[in-house]
Amino acid sequence: MTVVHPISRAWITNGGTGAQNYDEFADDAEITEIITAAPHSALAVEMPHLAPDSLGKSFLESLPDAVVRLERAKSEGRYQAAEHVVVLYRISADGEAPAYGLWSMVETGQISTSADEPGLVIRNEDVFISKVRERVALAEAVGTLLSPVLLLQTGKGEELHAALADATGKAGEPAATDVDPTGRTHAIWVLGPGELQTQLLDLAGGGELVVADGNHRSLAAQTGGLEHFLAVVTTPASVAIQPYNRLVSELPADLGDLLGRLRAAGATVTELPRPAQLPAKTSIEVYAAGRSFAIGLPPDPDGTAVENLDHALVERVLLRDALGLDAGDKRIAYIGGDYPVEWLRDEVDAGRADLAILIAPVTVDDFVEVNLERLKLPRKSTWFTPKARGGLVLAQLR
Q: In the beta sheet, which residues pair with residue 359?
């Protein structure tokens, strides 16, 4: 029996509510700018304290504003209700193969984070608990899930991909479309009960499901006691992994001290005659004070494959040992693949950050190996693209 189910009470966008997920931004000001330009964006509900008319309030203080915004959007007809549905999903762009997914509900009790914990949904990254608490509070306040967890179907991925491609190809005009900042078009089709819905649900739940995006949202479902969470089940052929870099502000050591500490820890440090860029695996590049360096961080000979990934070495050797920073320190910004290397260097040159840390993306092979071993990746180490849009399909909880 499948662990993937229809959405009992869904709200489907009529357009204008689509948004990047709340955790896809390098700084909060971008979110406020988007809400200002698109006040009906789901971001105004997901990040209520950053909406222009709530600035100055804390996240918790602004939750009543989120409730009002969502109910207003429904009453104004920006969403239409649907019951016992799944939603076909296609993301397309010129020069790219289409990506496919299925909006649905997945059993929270199936989440597994270790080899001795049964379940078909594998969560593979550490999280920031403060972000989880915010997601729990929001779900309790609005009684609705607005952003999906992106799940990778590993057992029947090829079959699901083919079935979704066929279903969207025959579905006619989509119920809604939305264009994201990268120029990709997100199209959805609502599918009610019937043979096709049952077939797609069986394929979507036909093997282990790996959390590709939405680790905080999946843990929030557990912490909040939800029986199901909103998900887009996608396929390996629909995704790629992009870099996930870091910016550090208010550097607690000057550049010379940092380089000296890295050398003392066994790292190799080579100044580069060119601007720092994305490196190959097993080394990183950093940019500070107009200078660029290639850094070879020392692996732990007794460490696991996860502990010796580049992102883990950055967290342990550079951030913790050399700079004395915990991974959750507010001075560290985690910058996903939508932001190019040039943007990170510009942030340093403009004085908005002191250090850019450039890290090769985790490979799909690394990702699969980690999940098969039921180990956890370091925080913010996989930036899957394309991203599912929030605000297209909502799941009402009560």
A: 284
